[in-house]
Design a protein that fits this description.
Chain lengths: 481, 149
């Protein structure tokens, strides 16, 4: 009988060994907790880094040679831990690895820019630049240059620039304001830009080379299109974010035929944010850079060279709009098995919660179902709805928290198997064409206040340099009866 | 100690360990519901509840065969009472852990939790039988319960 007491511990040891083999390290446990509790904040990230630093030997894979946390390696662990959860969860931590960035403003000072900051106007241009400087997280890392026929460092301090009520008067005589050498400006910006630098060109984006008298507008357009393509083709790793603003304009306007006239009214101006694609992605994911990515007062935006992103999405198993039946495969959250239509209507309806924040598109664009392309054998239809807080309850929190949109698919499953593909196409935006003027010689022509000469040609040149097209993202779901 | 009895014990341990390794499949093959099962998985309850069930089943068998271990309680229905206690105790403990962790995380799956514990009752009974046949041979007074040798 007593021998049993020597054998019983066998069970305990066996269970303990089993548990040990199944258990996770403190680091993985902390990551899993953060994901399950949806606590994907900087503070939580810091606490995870603290675990790594507390056990440098154990977690040396996640440390750099300098003893700092290797964010890329940690991001991989987080991704693999999150992908094992139900539904798979994601946490973009790349923004925490963002080193302190520097900002360089390139402020165009050509003849046609001066009237944007006329004393009688509301000064939208200067305000937009000031906002960008003031909201840049590392305010000490800001430099300003004046550009026209070349690039000239601004001689005053940042504070002087911010407080200057007539910046064009105080920078008078800097460079040659008669023309803007885009080739030199862009080449220089891109050539000198370091990995952690964000450059912002403030411009009217009117290509005004020296002496365009008697030159046809088509020739100017072709020239600027080729110029843009030639410059940007050399810098495939860069991204350019174009922001369009409207500003008051009071003064002389210089059209392409060199017959200036006075104009008072609104005119568009632009800010071109230029940075490495990785820096741009990280800024898009970090709220601290919101003013750069989506500035106050911006009218339209478009990012060139935006790679297709994988978004975090999951099918909500239990949702008020669901019709029919389906089961989310435990090993593949994009695979719906045992799909059955509603007994009376035959319709199956299910919703996908997706986080579309990382796509850097305006809310109105993302909420419009016409921007999505849907492919399926069964001919499903799509409805898009932004997620608001009132939709989140205790039980669906794991599916909705951190997601921005509900993509609801409705249809009749006509085949035993179907694959539904939802994609958001990265198309050359309509606003660029709508903001393009073919001639700017007559201020009374319709659309003069809202269009820019040759905008489409110049930005189209950038687009062809980066091989525009493709999708912002693609969501694929497999359905099986 | 007869070699045959030792084989029973080792087989019982192996079955229990296999149950623990394949616990998720074991539970979900019988009861799996959207949302609730995912939360059990994410919150580690598929680790805790099966472990509680194993500990309760083996502990109850050990109590019966070695602590109670009396001729007054060596009939099959005494063993059945212990089985009944096991199938009550393990799910109650499991439910308490389940609801407490769900409460902490703001989740509410009362009906699903109760159904899950019905499944757990079945596994508790099975594990109690496995534990009984693993250890009964060394009991001085109850080795013939529930089925004589």
């Amino acid at each position: 009988m007593k021998k049993i007491f020597y054998i019983i511990p066998l069970l305990v040891v066996a269970i303990a060994l089993t548990m040990n083999s199944c258990s996770t390290s403190p680091l993985e446990k902390a990551i899993k907790q953060a994901l399950v509790q949806q606590d994907t904040t900087q503070a939580r990230f810091d606490s995870i880094c603290a675990i790594i630093k507390a056990y440098p030997e154990r977690y040396k894979t996640y440390l750099t040679d300098g003893g700092e946390v290797d964010v890329a390696a940690l991001a991989e662990l987080i991704e693999s831990t999150g992908s094992n959860l139900r539904p798979p969860m994601h946490w973009d931590v790349t923004r925490y690895g963002l080193q302190q960035l520097s900002l360089t403003i390139y402020f165009e000072r050509s003849g046609s820019m001066v009237p944007y900051d006329a004393p009688g106007g509301r000064g939208q241009l200067k305000k937009a630049v000031n906002d960008m400087i003031n909201h840049f997280p590392a305010t000490g890392n800001v430099a300003i240059n004046i550009v026209n026929d070349g690039i000239y460092p601004y001689q005053g301090s940042i504070d002087q620039f911010l407080q200057d009520r007539n910046i064009y008067a105080s920078t008078q005589g800097v460079g040659n304001a008669a023309f803007t050498d885009f080739q030199k400006i862009f080449n220089d910006i891109l050539r000198v830009q370091t990995a952690g630098n964000v450059s912002v060109l403030v411009t009217d984006l009117i290509y005004s080379p020296a002496d365009t008298r008697d030159v046809s507008v088509e020739k100017i357009f072709n020239e600027e299109n080729s110029l843009a393509t030639r410059i940007f083709r050399q810098y495939k790793g860069k991204s350019i974010l174009v922001h369009q603003f409207m500003g008051d304009y009071q003064g002389k306007y210089y059209p392409y035929n060199n017959n200036p006239f006075n104009y008072t009214g609104q005119r568009p101006f632009y800010m071109l944010v230029i940075a490495d694609s990785k820096v741009m992605d990280a800024m898009a994911a970090d709220a601290a850079y919101a003013q750069l990515m989506s500035p106050a007062g911006v009218r339209n935006s478009y990012r060139f060279n935006q790679a297709e992103a994988s978004v975090d999405y999951c099918v909500i198993p239990d949702w008020k709009d669901n019709a029919g039946r389906f089961r989310v495969d435990h090993h593949d959250a994009t695979h719906l098995t045992k799909c059955e239509g509603d007994k009376t209507t035959g319709i199956i309806c299910f919703s996908v919660a997706a986080n579309l924040n990382g796509l850097q598109k305006p809310a109105a664009f993302l909420a419009d179902a016409s921007h999505y392309q849907l492919k399926s054998i069964s001919g499903f239809t799509l409805k898009v709805q932004p997620i608001d807080h009132s939709m989140v309850t205790g039980n669906n929190r794991a599916y909705l928290e951190g997601k921005t949109h509900l993509l609801t698919l409705t249809g009749k499953l006509t085949e035993p198997r179907d694959e539904v593909t939802i994609s958001l196409a990265n198309e050359f935006p309509a606003w660029i064409e709508q903001s393009t003027a073919m001639s700017d010689t007559n201020p009374s022509q319709p659309g003069f206040a809202t269009t820019t000469l040759g905008l489409k040609e110049f930005l189209g040149g950038i687009a062809s340099a980066f091989g525009q097209g493709g999708n912002y993202t693609t969501i694929k779901l497999k359905l099986e009866r | 100690m007869k070699q045959q009895h030792l084989i029973y014990l080792i087989a019982g341990i192996v079955v229990t360990v296999l149950f623990y390794i394949f616990r998720i499949n074991a539970y979900e093959s019988i009861y799996s519901v959207a949302g609730y099962s995912d939360q059990l998985y994410n919150l580690g309850l598929y680790d805790m509840i099966p472990l509680i069930t194993i500990v309760v089943a083996w502990a109850m068998a050990a109590i019966y065969y070695f602590a109670i271990n009396s001729v007054r309680f060596d009939r099959w229905y005494h063993w059945l009472v212990m089985l009944a206690l096991t199938v009550m105790l393990a799910p109650i403990a499991g439910y308490m852990v389940n609801s407490s962790i769900f409460d902490e995380n703001g989740l509410s799956y009362v009906a699903e939790s109760l159904t899950f514990e019905l499944v757990n009752m079945m596994w508790a009974a099975l594990l109690f039988i496995v534990a009984s046949f693993s250890m009964r041979w060394w009991s001085t007074n109850c080795r013939h319960t529930p089925i004589p040798q």
